[in-house]
Amino acid sequence: MLRKFFFLTLITSIPLYGQQEKKKVDKKETEIKEVIVTATKTKKNLKNVPITVQVITSEDIKKSQSTDFKTFLENEFSGINFTYDGGSPNINMMGFGGKYVLFLMNGERMAGETFDNIDYDRIDIDNIERIEIIKGASSSLYGSNAIGGVINIITKDSKSPLDINAGYLYDSSRDHKANLSIGTKQKWGSLSLASFYKMRTPYIITDRIPTNGIYNELNVAGFINYGFNPKLTFNLSPKIDIALTPGFYFSERNGGDPSSQKVRDHYYNYNIGLKTNFKFNENQNLSISGAFDRYDKFKYYKLLKEDEKVYENEIWRISSQYNHNIFNKHSVVAGGEIFYDKLLNSKFKNEKTGNRENAKIYSVFTQQEWSINPALTLVTGARMDYHSFFKQYFTFRLGGMYKFEDIMTIRAGYSGGFRSPTIKELYFNWFHPWGGGFQLMGNKNLRPETSDNFNLSVDFNLKKLNLTFITQYSSIKDKINTDAIVKDTIRYVNLKGYTNVLSSEVSAMYRLNKNFHFKGSYSYYDIGKRRSEKRPHTLTFKAEYIPSAKYYIPSIIISGKYLSQTKIYDDDSSSFVSYAPYSIWRLQLASKLPLGFTLTGGINNIFDYTADKVGIYSSVDIGRTFYLGLKWNFNKKVQDTDYN
Questions:
Q1: How far, in Å, CA of 293 to CA of 314, rounded?
Q2: Is the pLDDT at 30 greater than 50, yes or no?
Q3: Which residue from 60, 226, 147 is spatially nearest to 449, judged by alpha carbons?
Q4: How far apart are alpha carbons 33 and 634 in whole angstroms?
Q5: Residues with Cβ within 8 Å of residue 179, at least 6 apart in sequence
Q6: CB-CB contact of 20 with 43 (8 Å)
C-alpha cells in the first residue's frame, strides 16, 4: 500500500477546476480571479489559496444543461459517482461516502440524511452562483463529517435593478422541470426569490441477461418536488451588512410499486439563516451568524389523506468568526460555534424520549496563513470540538503552497480528521422485513473515527493547456461499519485496525482556439478489501464547440463518463460480488436567440446503455432519452447589449 502511495504521489496531484476558460481570453488566460471562501473561511483569489479546492461557476452549470444538482456532479467529475441503495442516491467522492462529505448551503450545514446522504433534490441548480469543493480532510475548520471533503453551494444574489430568469425542460423519460427567479439590487441591498418545480414518473428497469431464466426488475422512484428560496441583504452602513436566507422545500416520492398507490413518502424542509458582517477596516472584520434547518419525513396514506411522521431532523447552529489580515503577509481566522442536532426516528424504539435523541457540539478553531515570500505560503490550523457524548477532540492542519512563477503550483499538507458517530448509528433499532428479515441495531459504545490525511498536488498552467493532479492518502482508525453479531442481528461497530484510502485524480483542459475546447479527467481509488461500492477507475471526457456568432448557431457539447468494474467484498474476506463496467455519453445543443431566449436540446445516453444485471450498485439509467428546453433571461442593466 505505501509503495503504491509513494509511486502515485510522484505522478499525481490536485485538480483546480476553477481554472475554466473565460469569455475573453487574454495573454494570461490561465489566471484565476474567482473569489472563494470555503477553503480558508476568508475571501481569497483561487490562485492564492494554499489548500486544494475546485470552483464551479454558474456559467459552467448553465453550459452543462444538467437538470439537477446530483446529475451535474455525476456527469462533470470523474471522482464523484452515485449508487442507489434503497432507491436513494449515495455519493462517492475521493473514495468516501456521504457520511464523510460535508454539504453546506451558503456556509451552513444541511439537515436531513437518507442512507447517510442529504436530499440532493432540495438543491435548486438554477439558483447556484458557484460551488466550492474541498477534496480532502477539513476537520480542522469544519469539524465532524469533513474527512472526505466539503461541498459548499453558494446561491445567487441579484446583480442589477431587475433580474428575471425562467425556464422549462422536458425529457422523454417523462421528466419535467420548471424554474422562475426574480430579483433586484438597490442601494439599500438586494432581494431575490428563486423557485423550482420538478416531476418524474416512476419507471422499471429490467435485467438484460436473466438469472436462472428470471429477469429481475428494479423500481426507480418518481417524484414531485418544489421549493422557494428568498434571499434578502441589507447594507445598513458602509461597514455593516445583513443577509437573510429562508427557504421551503416539499417532495412527494412515488416508489413505483403497487404499495405506492396507497402510501407515499412526503418530505418537508424549513430553513432560515441570518448573518451579520461588521467591517472594522480593510483588514479586520467580524461575522456573527445563526441558522436553523429542519427536515421531516411522513408516510402519507392517500385513501385516508393523513400523514404519519416517521422522521424529523432539526439542527441549530450559532457561530462567530474574526478575520484579520496583517500587512498582507499574515492572515488570521478565529472563531467558535455551537451546534445542536436533534433527531426523531420511528426506528429508535425509545419510549422515554419519544423516539427523540439529540447531541450538542461546542467548537473553537483558528487557521493562519503565513506569506513567507511571493512564492511560498504556509498554512496552520487547529480546532477543538467538545461533543456531549464523546468529550473533546483536537484536529490540526499543516500545509503549504509553492509557486514557480505562473507556470506551476505545488500544494502539500497534512490534515487530521474525525467523525463522531451519528445519532442513528448510536440509537437505531429496526427490524428489516425483507431478505428473510434481520434486526439492525445502533451501538451506544461506538468510538469516533479519527484519521490522518496526507495530500500532494501539482497544477500546470500553460497558454492553452491546464494540467492538474492530486493524490491523497487517508488512514482511518475505528471506522464505523455494520457487522453481524449473532444470527439475524446486525449492529454498528468500530472496525479493528485501520482503513486505508488512496485516491488520485488527473485532469486536463486544452483550448485549441476560442471555439474548440477539450476536457478530460481520470480518477483512481484503492480502499483495500473493506466493504465498498466505489468503482476504482472512472474517466470523463468533454469536447465543446462554442460559436463566435451571437445568435442562432448552436453550441455543441459531447461528453461521456466511464466507470470501471467493481467488486463488493464482505468485510476483510475474499468473497465478493462483481459489477460490470459501463459508460454513458451525452450530446448537448444550445442556441441563443434574440430577446434573451436560449433554446436547448440533446440526447442523454446516446448509445442506449442499460445494466445487464440491475441492483443497488448498477446504473439506474432508463436508456436513450431526448430533451428539449427553453430559457429566458432579462437583465435590465444590459438589456440593450447582451443576453446571456
A1: 6
A2: no
A3: 147
A4: 26
A5: 124, 126, 127, 165, 166, 167, 194, 195, 196, 197
A6: no
In this structure, is the dihedral angle defined by the CA atoms of residues 609, 517, 537 and 15, taken in order, positive or negative? negative
Rg (the chain; Cα; Å): 24
Residue whose C-alpha cell is 467548537? 363
154 is written with which cell numbers?
453558494
Helix, strand, or coil (residue 581): coil
Residues with Cβ within 8 Å of 445's Cβ and at least 6 positions away in sequence, in order, are: none
C-alpha cell at 186: 438597490
Separation of alpha carbons 47 and 33, rounded Å:
7
pTM of the model: 0.88
Please write the tens of the pLDDT for every residue from 273-283: 999 999 999 89
Which of the four pLDDT bands, split at 50, 70 and 90, describes residue 531?
low
Across the chain, what does the average pLDDT equal? 85
Q: pLDDT category, 362, cuts 50, 70, 90? A: very high
Phi, psi of 560, deg, nearest 5: -150, 160
- Which positions ≥6 away from 127 have C-beta within 8 Å? 155, 156, 179, 181, 194, 196, 229
Whole-number Å distance between alpha carbons of 232 and 242: 8
Element at 475 (helix H, strand E):
strand 465-477
3-state secondary structure of 385: strand
Cell 461500492 sits at which residue?
A: 533
